[in-house]
């Protein structure tokens, strides 16, 4: 019962991440992806850091910088480069291979042997996402593909290292989250000026959108994500990732009035089935 509750709480993260596209496109249509990525992480990270007034010490300064860069800063850079260079949905298909890398890193670092159930869930997941995006135009940009793949690898390593290193004794999950958000966003400061030149003017609606992305889709979402990694297996957590494109797809249908074809409905069913397959406990590595 507790494991089911923990899984459902963790699943809220990819659901929140799946709503990011609509929030950004409707409330923050400024075409400044690196700036938006920075504003997602830095303000909420700084606020939490000032609220709890606890800083990492010793080796945890370096570990927080590494984990924050992998889970937040570097990942966000690759994510938005891919989003700019690839047409609708292609980045999601490529990003869906992330659990493959999580399984590999878990095998190397955590000694968690992959299971046939994990492999079956991955095949189902990728198939479902491809069917969801069946109507998308399949123009391919090599640099966009490489960026999406690098993003998948970086996030996968961040997920496994978060489990491998754990967190300092006596430090709450929210404090641990604030370290990663703050230190991870630091790498985006020079990137904003190098890649985009300046800080754009913002309207009240833009600011409201950034606040939602920062507090809900980043602060709360990453807190639940890191909590799930700590409690559950990194492989189990990563196999919840197809909820992200599934949520984005369903919100596009409900909010933006996008159509759904029968083959896409099959994709929805396969993704939901893959989540049940991946979360059914059969072994320690499950």
Strand count: 0
> CA-to-CA gap between the ends?
17 Å
* Overall outline: globular
Radius of gyration: 18 Å
Please give the share of residues in helix: over 70%
Please indicate the percent range of residues in DSSP E strands (runs of 2 or more): under 5%
* Main beta sheet: none
Estimate the mean pLDDT confidence.
84
Low-confidence residue ranges: 282-286
The tally of helices reads 14
Order of helices and strands: HHHHHHHHHHHHHH
By secondary-structure content and strand pairing, the structural class works out as mainly alpha
Describe the structure.
With 286 residues, the protein is an all-alpha fold. It is built from 14 helices and no strands. It has helices at 2-18, 20-27, 33-52, 59-85, 90-95, 98-110, 116-132, 142-165, 173-186, 188-196, 204-231, 234-238, 243-255, 262-279. Helix 4 (59-85) packs antiparallel against helix 8. The radius of gyration is 18 Å and the shape is globular. Residues 282-286 have low confidence and may be disordered.
Brief account:
This protein has 286 residues and is an all-alpha fold. 77% of the residues lie in helices and 0% in strands.
SSE layout:
Layout: H1 2-18, H2 20-27, H3 33-52, H4 59-85, H5 90-95, H6 98-110, H7 116-132, H8 142-165, H9 173-186, H10 188-196, H11 204-231, H12 234-238, H13 243-255, H14 262-279
Helix pairs in contact: 1-11, 1-13, 2-11, 3-4, 3-9, 3-10, 3-11, 4-8, 4-9, 6-8, 7-14, 9-11
């Amino acid at each position: 019962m507790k494991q089911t509750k923990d899984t459902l709480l963790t699943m809220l993260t990819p659901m929140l991440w799946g709503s990011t596209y609509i929030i950004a496109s409707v409330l923050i249509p400024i075409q400044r992806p690196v700036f938006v990525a920075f504003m997602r992480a830095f303000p909420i990270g700084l606020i939490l850091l000032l609220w709890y007034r606890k800083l990492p010490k010793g080796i945890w300064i370096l570990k927080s910088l590494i984990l924050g860069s992998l889970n937040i800063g570097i990942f966000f850079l690759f994510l938005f480069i891919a989003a700019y260079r690839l047409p609708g949905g292609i980045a999601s298909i490529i990003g869906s291979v992330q659990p493959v890398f999580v399984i590999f890193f878990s095998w190397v670092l955590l000694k968690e042997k992959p299971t046939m159930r994990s492999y079956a869930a991955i095949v189902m997941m990728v198939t479902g996402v491809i069917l969801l995006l069946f109507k998308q135009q399949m123009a391919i940009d090599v640099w966009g593909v490489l960026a999406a793949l690098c993003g998948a690898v970086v996030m996968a390593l961040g997920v496994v290292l978060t489990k491998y290193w754990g967190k300092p004794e006596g430090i709450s999950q929210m404090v641990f989250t604030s370290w990663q958000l703050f230190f991870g966003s630091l790498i985006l400061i020079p990137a904003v000026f190098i890649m985009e030149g300046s800080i754009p003017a913002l309207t009240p609606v833009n600011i409201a959108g950034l606040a939602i992305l920062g507090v809900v889709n980043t602060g709360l979402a990453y807190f639940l994500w890191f909590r799930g990694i700590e409690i559950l297996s990194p492989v189990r957590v990563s196999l919840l990732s197809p909820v992200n494109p599934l949520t984005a797809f369903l919100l596009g249908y409900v909010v933006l009035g996008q159509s759904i074809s029968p083959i896409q409905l099959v994709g929805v069913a396969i993704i939901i089935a893959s989540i049940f397959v991946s979360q059914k406990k059969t072994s320690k590595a499950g």
